[in-house]
Each structure stands twice: as structure tokens, then as C-alpha cells.
Design brief:
- There is one protein chain.
- 33% of the residues lie in helices and 19% in strands.
- With 150 residues, the chain is of the alpha/beta class.
- It has a single domain (2-145), classed as Alpha/beta knot (3-Layer(aba) Sandwich).
- Strands 3-2-1-6-4-7-5 form a 7-stranded parallel beta sheet, with helices on both faces.
- Helix 1 (11-24) packs parallel to helix 5.
- The two termini are 16 Å apart.
- Homodimer.
- S-adenosyl-L-methionine binds at residues 99, 119, 127.
Length: 150
């Protein structure tokens, strides 16, 4: 299982997701362009020394990402989806994709994903923080596939 971030804009969110990946033993894919310099000290400050314990792959664009992940299912998490992540059967090889903080993913990227899921939230709010959403989604996917560490 992997987490993929499409054109992430906030270094702190990427750092938090890298730390999540390190803690749960999951690789992280970053689909460029990034909204910050990769050497940005905020990434390392948030990820701390955990960044040394996670496999990170950077991809020039979505096509390069899809080519690198091959036949793995790409599961998009979006507030626009109809199906809940809690009503979906995850598989160990799934790639959990999250869009950029300000706009999600464009329609052509969404159309190239194998499934779109949502994390249920209160109607009065717009969306969760990227790293929080990734943690909830990954936790459920690892739980379902009996892949949680420890």
C-alpha cells in the first residue's frame, strides 16, 4: 500500500504525511509540481528524523506516477465522491491518492483513477486537513487488509 499526494502545496502537510508513512510502513509518492521547494526546512521540521524511515518517490506528473505504479489500483479520496471509504474493500497493493489542498485533482486525473471515495464529515464543513484525511484513510485501509504494524 502507498500514499500519493497530487501537487501538494503545503510543506507541513507533506512532512506530516511522510511521518505517517514512516510510522505505518507505507511509501509516499509525490506528484509534481510541488507548491514549495523540496529542500524547504518546513518539510524536515514536520517529518523530523522520520523522513529517513520512509520511501519517497517523486514523479514529474500524473502520467509518470501512473507509469511507475503500474497495475496497482489508484483510489482517489475526494469530497466529491459518493461512496464512503468505510464501505469499500481495500487491497494490499492499493495506492491512496489525495489532491492538492486548494483544489483537489482536476477532472482528467479523477477520471483516470480506479475508484473515488470520501471520508464522511459534517455537512457544515468543507474538508479535512490533508494529513488528517490521509491518516484516517490509511488507517482504515491497513486495518481492512490486516497490514497494521506491530
Amino acid at each position: 500500500m502507498r500514499i500519493a499526494l497530487y501537487e501538494p502545496e503545503i510543506a507541513g502537510n507533506v512532512g506530516a504525511v511522510l511521518r505517517l508513512g514512516a510510522c505505518l510502513g507505507v511509501a509516499v509518492d509525490l506528484i509534481e509540481p510541488l507548491g514549495f521547494a523540496w529542500d524547504d526546512r518546513r518539510v524536515r521540521r514536520t517529518a523530523m528524523d522520520y523522513i529517513d524511515h520512509v520511501a519517497v518517490a517523486r514523479h514529474a506528473d500524473f502520467a509518470a506516477f501512473r507509469a511507475a505504479t503500474g497495475s496497482a489500483r489508484t483510489i482517489l479520496f475526494t469530497t466529491k465522491a459518493a461512496q464512503s471509504a468505510y464501505d469499500f474493500a481495500f487491497a494490499p497493493g492499493d495506492v491512496l491518492l489525495f489532491g492538492k489542498e486548494s483544489a483537489g485533482v482536476p477532472a482528467d486525473v479523477a477520471d483516470r483513477c480506479d475508484m473515488a471515495l470520501k471520508l464522511p464529515i459534517m455537512a457544515e464543513v468543507r474538508s479535512m486537513n490533508l494529513a488528517t484525511a490521509a491518516a484516517l484513510a490509511l488507517g482504515e485501509a491497513l486495518r481492512q487488509t490486516a497490514s497494521l504494524p506491530g
